[in-house]
Amino acid sequence: MDVILQDITEDNFEDFMNMELPEHQRELLASNAFSIAQSRFYPDYIPRAVYCDGAPAGFLLYVRDADDVPGDYAICRFMVDHARQGQGIGRRAMALLLDELRALPDMRRVTICYHTRNEQAKRFYAGFGFVETGIDESGEMWAALRGSAAGRP
Asked: Which one, of 128, 136, 132, lies nearest residue 144 by Cα?
């Protein structure tokens, strides 16, 4: 299985706009369409396409200089298309993203947020070394990558 991350461009964005989660997961994450729109208006929002064996398989969005703090990166969205879940694609994509972020010369902190009821996400991110730091004002759980500076809230 060959998983890679690529930029979202005018040539591929439609492949990711309508990618869906299973019904029971839809309330836990904003749509890819919303996330792609955000990235067009907020230059520090970086969307990434997840491909598996050359086919679109997932989507992620991270924010550079989160909360206007240089070197802080926040992963805001991370999903694998419902038809591709359970195949290890998400695990490989997250490893690639963390490698990408760790290679940035200014990276000092990586955080991630998820819905407090998303136990699967909690276990998944903990497996990469994320430690919960608290719930923000909108009710989202935040976790910081172990070894990076303290995370939100």
From this structure: 132
